Amino acid sequence: MAARSYSVPSLKLNEIPDHLKIGTFALKWPEEIKKSPTPIMVNLSIDAKGFYLICLNKAKKENECFDLALIHDTRTGSQVSLPSGHEYFQKNNIGVLDVPIASKWLTIYYGNTFVASDMRLIHFYFESPSIAEEWAERLFQFGHNQILRHLSSLGCLEKLHSRIINSLIDVNRKTISVRSLIQFLCKNTRDSNKEKTILRALNYLKLPCQVDSTINLDEFTFNNFFRLYMRLMECHEIDKLFESLDRKRQRYLSWENMKVFIQKQNAALNDTYTMDLYEQKAKDLIKKYTEYDGNFKEKGMSNELFLRYLLSFDNLIIDPKKLDLCMDMNKPLAHYFISSSHNTYLTGSQWTGRSSVEMYRQVLLTGCRCIELDVVDSERKNDEPEIKHKNTPVRPVLFIEVIVAIKEYAFKVTPYPLILSIENHCGPKAQAKMAQYFVDVFGEYLITEPLKTHPCEEHYPLPSPNDLKYKILIKNKKLNPNLTSKLNNENNRLLPRKQTTTSTTSSSDQSIDMSTVSSSSKNLCHTTLSDESTKSKETLFEQMSPLENHQQLVNKNPRYCVLIDDGNSSDDGTDINEINSNEYQSSTNDRYRESKATKAMSDLVHYIVPVRFKTFALAEERNRSYEISSFSEEKAYNLIREQAKEFLAYNQRQLCRIYPRGTRLDSSNYNPYIYWPIGCQMCALNYQTLDAAMQLNLGLFSFNNGCGYIEKPSALCQSKSSFDPRIRMNVENVAGYQIYIKVISGQFLCQDREPTFVDIQMYGMYGDANKRNEFLVRAKRWNGFQAIYDDIDIDSNKYSIRFPNVTLPEMAALRFVVSTEDGTLLGQSFIPIAHIRPGYRYVVLRNQMNIPIHSSSLLIFIQINVHIKAEDQDFANKLVEPLKDQTKDLNKSNQDSNNEKNQYNDIFSKMLIRNHSSFPIQQENTSAKRSETTTSSDETNWYQKHLIAASRLHDRKTLCKVLSFNDIISKEVVKRDESIPSKLRRISIDYQKKIEEKEDHFQKCLNLQYDETYVHSDNSNMANNSENKCQITSDSHKQNIEQSLLTLYSKKFTQQEELECESLNEYYDKIEKYIRNDYRRQINQIDNILQEEKSRVNEYVQSQIKRETNDIEKTEKDRNQITMLKQKSSQSNSKAGTLTSRTLEEMHEDVKEQLQINLQTNLDELEKQKAKEIQKCLEKYFNQLDEIKSHLEQLVNNNEDNLRYDNSPSPSSSSSSSHASKMRINASLAAISPYTVKTSRINSEPI
Q: 105 phi and psi, to 5 degrees?
């Protein structure tokens, strides 16, 4: 491991030991350079919550606070560079003379930059080396705490309160001056309005409110400070939200109110609990936050406590789990984004900046996993490699110093593999030293040969980050492996055996066998490889032209195989198979000499073998995952425009590196989000420039415990996919998001400039990203401490920003940028969409280094819905509707068990509860079936303790994981037949014409009956028997038509019903098959575990027998005794092994039985759900037919009523009555469902 590799805690606040809270005596070295500096006596301590290092000047009785989050590094002992004037301690006989000063010295690198020359170097001298070592370790751990770098808004307020009480305190009186408090909150600017606001707030809190008065430290508690914060912010928007929840105007929120709020917060993205879990969470929150105010313990949350909750870690906008190591680190390296640096040694401009060893330390401390080393021959001509920007006035640093620094810091904050990208401009002798330094300094951390499980061969994937933990990979040009053996043979034949491989490489440059090559070829070779050559590349090409194949030269003299650097970019490596005449044209003679590849360096290159990119087709044909190509940002951008799908497929297989174009002399950075969506793993950026691009980079890699590796979205890693990243289209098997954002207010407690604008930027796939300043929200009011951006009703559905379709949410991210009127950055925050929690959230603003800014935040409301195309909305609603109906039934506790519908709802409710519960079905062991077979022997106890206790069969939560129906639905592993709606519509269309004809016929029959009846009523001479006969004939005909119409509907519904039921049967059969396959997979998994652990038991048995046999032979001399003891050892260990294996088998059977129970439970639930859905389908069509029948009967009855009514009026009104009657009949027919009459078909589709 590296010299000092501290374990950086994660997801846990700093716990400060008591002796560090009390403090330690130390001498602080002055930061100002003086001729005769004098150290200052101080007391060093850490505040109780772990936010600040407090330095008390004992002479002036003043405190200085150092933010732990801004501590980059701490050094003591041999790592310290003592400042000038440190001889003061020896001259004044301070400390023990025989103990080196450096061992008691502590240097802290502190600041808002990664450039060491711009940092503050804070030096302390302690009484003993142990104290210095403890402070160095503790401060580094505390400073790199993940929670400290991802504080909630409430945590930022606690941090600010700690700063106030520790930096503004009068140490002797234990008081805080009101004047100094005002200056602090106003950021040392004079603003009379803000001063008056602060004084009024202090008066309201019954604290001293005169400018010249002081506040006792006991009075200025965090509770009072929080109330001061509320008065300054006004918090009208919180009051509105509180009132919307407090319907009864009780002035507090009960757990029922909180349950409603939590439910609303979690409503998006199906992030729903059951009602029981909502209720429990609400009660837990009430209990937790009412502890701050005893008056509300029995009631609920006041508005103050509610605001505390909204600001707290419990309501963080990101899922806190994403801050820890949360991603699968067992995939090939090509499936990760890798934090990468460009020209790491530079501290400034590409042309005039300085080279610095310190930049490597600072960049590695950010978690960066790919750093660059531009290595050149020494300007002193001493064969010592140096690092500098070639052909620039930048002064070099020694190569050996850089790699020693890399060794010390490679794994200080992350254990995952580090890649060294070498730009090699060295001759053979310098390369020999480079290779030797790599081996000597890095030792076991250096990958010197491929892993046995992942050979560097075609068709093999790259190893995973877990496979390469604590390993360093070299990216340097590599000789053709096919020629390496020839190279070795040639060396052995030409050179003395005592020479090493490295010396052979350099010495053999002087002797070349050219007997079989033409004279022009000889001249070419010597011109190319000689140090004294001055010929141009054009002349060389002309000399090379007569050669039919330059491979003739290579085959004859493999020693002189060289890898030529790309003339346009030295980042591009070249394989020996890829050198052609065009590449010779692109390099100068001097570049040939600098680009020789020695075998010693070549042998250190594995998994990251640079080659010059030709075509994607050639790369796919070669299928070498270990090859990597480097692209300038412009070249990569052109490839994305022209061959996006091919580029994406390339990045699924192998690595690529993107570097800034050469014209970025100011060390500015390109936008990495142009290249991440295409899968480019290493976007190398200039860490010395904290521009927007670097802020994106720091934001992305701050997740997953800041380990430097971020897992790519699965859509970017699927080898067989039709996904085209250039086109705005939904990704296969990925649900897009609709995102709505309302920016409500901004809180800026210590800000002297108005936060005028909030720019909301979307990054992601090319169709999802928006332009900068496209969604710019302007402040409507600013009271000096809080800005109001949206004063509409807080609970309304009006949103500031809308993103209607984010096609690949895993790749997308939001960035909030707050700026002044003139564009000055006040704060920003980068949040991946996949990590966002919707609802009312506070966004903590960060500085350019991605560190939270004191008490600066935005209150937003964010809603995230699954995007559904308009044409699929009806179908989606039909799929969702059963779930909604069943979810409503979760609140019904006393249902009739004999009611079949309620029974189905209960069953489905249990499935929902189980799906969202952390406990699988019957996860606990239901039987005490396992035998308690034990022996009294020590061997058995040892086996039980070490092998049984460590068995993976104990992990029931993983091995017996239940795959429920809801899991399958949510993951969409089995899809319904999407063609069913169109098939149902087709059946409707087929029957529609016949139905229309029958409906028209039925309509005419009704009209005819009415007309005949009306005529008969006017003709009083008509015989009664004739009228009755006509009436009977009309009724009979009408009934026949009605019956035939119902028969048509019945046939139509029967066909639709059969089709839908058949589809449901197929769908549930697929789900059953999937569940059974998952069960078989689990069985195979535990079978494999059993076999592996039984094999391990046998290995332990044999190993133990062998060990005991050796001990017996060493201690005993009597042969008989030796034989007897050997037999006894063999028997006892074999018996213990057998018992252990039997116990493992019993554990295996228990797990298997549990899996069988889970399987049967799943199948039973599936069958009930299937029966429920089929029953619902049958009821749907039965109800539709019954509804049509009812409508027809009602229509007939209405017609008969009209007949009786219209027989009574006078003839003068007959015409109008006839028209009115027909209108009533038509209106009655129009009331029939959409598949019965023409009038309704105008505005609706047939089913």
A: -105, 140
Q: Which residues pair with 836 in a beta bridge?
A: 318
Q: Return the CATH architecture of domain 234-315.
A: Orthogonal Bundle (1.10)
Element at 957 (helix H, strand E)? helix 956-959
Give the residue extent of every domain in the chain.
8-148, 234-315, 333-482+594-716, 737-870
Torsion (CA) 538, 539, 543, 549 in degrees, nearest 10: -20
Helix residue ranges per DSSP H, 606-664: 616-622, 633-653
Would you state the pLDDT for residue 984? 85
- List Cβ neighbours of 607 (8 Å cut-off, separation of 6 or more): 333, 447, 450, 454, 456, 462, 463, 473, 626
Residues of the chain with pLDDT under 70: 1-10, 34-35, 91-98, 267-275, 292-298, 481-596, 721, 792, 794-796, 870-946, 957, 963-967, 970-973, 1006-1038, 1199-1247
Beta bridge partners of 24: 44
Residues 188 and 751: their CA atoms lie apart, in Å, by: 10
1172-1181 contacts, C-beta under 8 A, 24 or more apart: 1172/904, 1172/907, 1172/908, 1173/882, 1173/1064, 1173/1068, 1174/1061, 1174/1064, 1174/1065, 1175/900, 1175/904, 1176/882, 1177/1057, 1177/1060, 1177/1061, 1177/1064, 1178/1057, 1178/1061, 1181/1053, 1181/1054, 1181/1056, 1181/1057
Determine phi and psi for 1081, rounding to 5 degrees. -65, -40
Check the CA dihedral 362-368-369-370 and report its sign. Answer: negative
Task: Quote the CA–CA distance of 35 and 1191 in Å, as a whole number.
Answer: 105
The yes-or-no answer on residue 389 being catalytic is yes
CB burial class (10 A; 0-12, 13-18, 19+) of residue 797? exposed
Which residues in 199-220 are b (16+ Cβ under 10 Å) and which e?
bebbeebebbbeeeebbeeeeb
Q: Please, are residues 258 and 301 in contact by the beta-carbon 8 Å criterion?
A: yes
What is the length of the chain? Answer: 1247
Tokens of 1015: 């005529």
Task: Tell the CATH superfamily of the 333-482+594-716 domain.
Answer: Phosphatidylinositol (PI) phosphodiesterase (3.20.20.190)
Q: Give the distance, in angstroms, between the CA of residue 1100 and the centroid of all CA atoms in the same chain.
A: 41
Tokens of 886: 């069943």
The CATH code of domain 8-148 reads 2.30.29.240
If one counts every other C-beta atom within 10 angstroms of the C-beta of residue 1199, the result is: 20
Catalytic residue, chosen from 342, 425, 454, 1148, is: 342
Beta-carbon count within 10 A of 965 CB: 21
Task: Give domain 737-870's CATH architecture.
Answer: Sandwich (2.60)
141-177 pLDDT, tens digit per residue, is 999 999 999 999 999 999 999 999 999 999 888 999 9
pTM for the model stands at 0.66
Beta-strand relationship, 71-76 and 62-67: unpaired
Phi-psi region of 753 (alpha: psi -120 to 50; beta: other; left: phi over 0): beta
Annotated catalytic residue within 72, 335, 389, 835: 389
Task: Give me 120's structure tokens.
Answer: 């503050």
Rounded Cα–Cα distance for residues 1154 and 923 (Å): 7
What would the two tokens of residue 373 be? Answer: 């080393």
Residues belonging to the binding site for Ca(2+) are 343, 372, 374, 423
3-class SS letters over 648-705: HHHHHHCCEEEECCCCCCCCCCCCHHHCHHHCCCEEEECCCCCCHHHHHHHHHCCCHH
Phi, psi of 1216 (to 5 degrees): -65, -35
Per-residue pLDDT of 542-566, as tens digits, reads 333 333 333 333 333 333 333 333 3
342 is catalytic: yes
| Residue tagged 């007997």 (tokens) | 515
